[in-house]
Amino acid sequence: MSSQGESEPGVNEPVVRINVDGRDVAVPPGTTVTGAIALAYADGNLGVYGRDLAVHGLDIDVDERDLTAHGHGHGLAVDGRDPSTPAFRASGSLGEPRAPICGMGICHECRVTVDGVAQVRSCLTTVRDGMVVETTGASRRASLSAETTRTNTADRTNMSLSAGTPRTNGAGRTTTTPGAETPRTNTTDRTSMSLSAGTPLPTEADVIIVGAGPAGLAAARVAGAAGRDVLLLDENAQTGGQIWRGGSDTRAIPKNARFVSSIAVVDHRPGDRHTAGTLVLLHQGRLRELHYHDLVLATGARELFLPFPGWTLPGVFGAGGLQALVKGGWPIAGTRVVVAGTGPLLLAVASFLRERGADVALIAEQTQLRSLLGFGQTLLGRREKWPQMWELRTSLAGVPYRTGQWIVAAEGRGRVERVVVTNGTSRWTEPCDAVAVGYGLVPSNELARLIGCETDERGRVRVGEFQRTDRPHVYAIGELTGIGGVDLSEVEGEIVGHVLGAKEGDYHPTLEPRLLERRAQAQEFADALERAFELRPELMRLADDETIVCRCEDVTWRELAPHRAWRDAKLVTRCGMGACQGRVCGAALRELKGWTIDTSRPPISPVPVGAWED
Amino acid sequence: MTARHSVNTRSDIAVIGAGVIGASIAAELAARGAHVTVFDRGELGGGATAEGMGHLLFLADSPAQFELIGRSMELWGRLLPDLPPGCEVDKCGTLWLAADDEDLATAHEKTAGLRRFGVEAEVVDAAQLRQIEPELAHDLLGAMRVPEDAVVYPPRVVSYWLNESPAANRITVRAHETVEELGSTSGSGTATGSDVVASGGQRRARGGSAPRLRTAGGDWETYSAIIVASGVGTAKLLPEVGIQPRKGHLAITDRYPGFLRHQVVELAYVKNTHMGEGDSVSMNVQPRSTGQVLIGSCRQFAGLDRSVDPGITKRMIDQAIRYVPSIRTLQILRIWTGFRPASPDDRPWIGAIPGRPGVFIASGHEGLGITSAMGTAELLTDIVMNAQPRISNELYDPATRLVGAEKA
């Protein structure tokens, strides 16, 4: 048993036994594989990732040259004794150690091998008894050891192959390496979407709602009550979206609605004479088609990550990302955390982390006090926010909250050890084991764009008064239409529910004026929030020449400099062509360079080749 | 950017299309002293060049075919070591897989064919095949191995040719400028005072008339030669050559370094891909130097509809699983479509266009554009510059083919 601390299961509590990099560990049920890996490494005995590499020196010369040439020499030496954030993978080109930042399937930095299947997003995968997890890729090792016939004349080929070698760690020597001749035929359960709540998947549904967060749940509740047959889908195992997920306030599935969990929408086909449209889903390792009459997109939002020097170090997280990871079992007790960025989310995250035993060293809010006071006035005018404010104030007593400060760099060898903070005039360092950086949210609009819904320059889906998009039978609600928080999401969901519940051609007989009023008020509050926490221009200039912008393909700020548009840069540098399909760098480059991503290609999230089989 | 302000009046020759064909021609012309302006309606290398696999392969189904491809591969062989890392050069070789006795016989035949031209090739038996590519299906009977075949990332090669190759300073690139029409100073659109006339040293209009082009919203521009290398876009400027888009699908996976070492293609490929107008699917799986795996291939005549066809995608993937069973565990990140410029007789057009003085074509390479690019560039440059062509363009010459078609 390797996990220590508050997550240690009690004597009589059920545990799930899994194997992480050759070591048996027991974790609480419901833990994500990401959380289990962090737990397994928390005792310090497994942390041989990089160091072991240096000892065994597999192709290390090529790697070192490469890393040095790129100015990322820190990539190799990870001290195995106390890696508060273990490296999950080595980046594709440079071989840098990487760890997850988003906790919700966006960044793809948490990919590991699960039961012999490589490149599985561990944050979306829940532990199962007997699961074998490798952070290094057994198939890759097998292939490398079988390296006999290939005659690579180009150095760069050798380099890219050796970039895979950091995946060989100490555990690799004790783990049975599947022989290359063993076909990996495990085609089911290989993905995060393996477990469903048992709801059989129909081939047709009256109303499909994609996303079971606040907006989707509200829409399901109202439309279901109005007699529509509602099917609610979510990529996660639970309802509640990012905001409620895993918390004590996880919301119940509305009556009159069916919920299918752990299912990914991967493609869309336009309608024909028989159906308004069809979703293609990845369900239990197979592709399934699902026709709808009406489609409600409630796919929510994700964090905006802005690159700064050192942001790829393990231990740098999104603010919401760290919260999601901790909810999935990531051990945080005793970890010294700096929370930085902007907006009320920082306070909520800091409070949550503290409650879980973290030592929150500092909250750095980039907004100036002046702007914050103005927003305080708005807040004071809203009685319903008072209890929440008071709670935060109490839970964060003693934590320094500094306005007008922001992080300009993260530093450390193989993982974050300190951050450089500035107030615009001077700079100082703040030691820490983890950094949670939150610069706000951006709409998760991949499905909407694939369907062809019009979006604005900030990626928000354009909707009319009743949440209709410009595509027939397709509605959009919640953060997808603009970042507005829970209240706005819920009221938009209710509005759609009423619209869908109305008779054909009769838009809103039951749509009460108070709903539209509530939406206007929530929108007003969201606008005030956005104005108060507007990102300062300095944040757009944090990246230096060597800062990686595209984490999947290791593309630096310098490499992007000659390019004027997203597609042009993509073609030449491979920026945005990696596993996350531009979800992280695309949003950043929209802020940094004003580039827009014009295409959305299927599948929306990775699909195993075997899913196409009959 | 408007055409008016960006015209390089030193240019002799205009190349329309900054794909792998146009860019290699521009680099070759520039290397031989010409000043070249390259137009593209989009980004450099953003068309079929970016949509395909970037497979460089030897083919010798006929001596005539080998003349162009063999020469092209020879030129590629010299260039590969000089290409920058982003070009992802991987001399992985090709394995042509035999699923049955007929395929195996074909493997022996093709191996002998390649060897006759001095190309290294060998037949490997089932046991050897399993050893060198353990992920392949165990029921395969063997393969033809062509070790000198290679893989590149073509958009980056295009950018090398246009911006970094030895004579790139003689190349002017005008991306995002669409050439709307072609003309000549004595034919359509008479020369006017507003003409921008190229003034380079060796330009001389043939037979008293010079070719011209007009960009969207721009003036007519006159050149000593205009080369149309715009792939499927050729149809708009030169409708007479009958180039049609032949749609393909490709899927790319996450990174799995070492999963495969060779590009693997089914031997039935050539048979399958030339079955005429119908849809066809042929197993073609390529390991990229990044560790990603590209899965192809299929051919359809479906206009310019870019949507992913679920039926043919499934056929393509089923075929990949048949030959590489363990590929089913790899995660597909992206599926896309692209259009090969197909000529009516499956041969590229390389040469002067009859009835259009000073206008040349290099297009219609279908799925062999990357492989044939450098040979095409050398051949067309020989023709444009009135040099003795190193190889014959008889098979590809629009003069004989178009005239022949009219007679027939």
Shape of chain B: globular
Structural class of chain B: alpha/beta
Number of strands of chain B: 20
What is the makeup of the main sheet of chain B?
Answer: 8 strands, mixed
| Structural class by helix and strand composition of chain A | alpha/beta
Radius of gyration based on Cα positions of chain A: 24 Å
The amount of beta strand of chain B, in percent, is 25-35%
GO molecular function (chain A): iron-sulfur cluster binding; oxidoreductase activity
Protein name (chain A): FAD-dependent oxidoreductase
Keywords (chain A): Oxidoreductase
Domain FAD/NAD(P)-binding (chain A): 206-481
Write a brief structural summary.
Chain A has 614 residues and is α/β, with parallel strands linked by helices.
What does this protein structure show overall?
The complex is a heterodimer of chains A (614) and B (408). Chain A has 614 residues and is of the alpha/beta class. Chain A has four domains: 5-188, Ubiquitin-like (UB roll) (Roll), CATH 3.10.20.30; 194-302 and 442-511, FAD/NAD(P)-binding domain, CATH 3.50.50; 309-437 and 532-537, FAD/NAD(P)-binding domain; 543-593. In chain A, 28% of the residues lie in helices and 20% in strands. Chain A contains 18 helices and 27 strands. The longest helix of chain A has 20 residues, at 513-532. Helices cover 29% and strands 25% of the residues of chain B. The model of chain B is unreliable at 1-9 and 188-206 (pLDDT under 50). Chain B is globular, with a radius of gyration of 22 Å. Chain B has helices at residues 3-6, 20-31, 48-51, 63-79, 101-116, 126-132, 154-163, 234-237, 269-273, 310-323, 369-384, 398-407; strands spanning 13-16, 36-39, 55-56, 94-98, 122-125, 142-146, 150-151, 171-174, 179-184, 196-197, 211-215, 220-222, 225-228, 244-255, 263-266, 280-287, 292-299, 331-342, 349-352, 359-363. In chain B, the strands form four sheets. In chain B, strands 5-6-4-15-16-17-14-18 form an eight-stranded mixed beta sheet. In chain B, strands 8-2-1-13-20-19 form a six-stranded mixed beta sheet, covered by helices on one side. Chains A and B meet through strand 6, helix 4, helix 5, helix 17 and strand 27 of A and helix 6, helix 7, strand 14, helix 10 and strand 18 of B. Chain B: GO terms for molecular function: oxidoreductase activity. Chain B: Residues 183-212 have a biased composition (Low complexity).
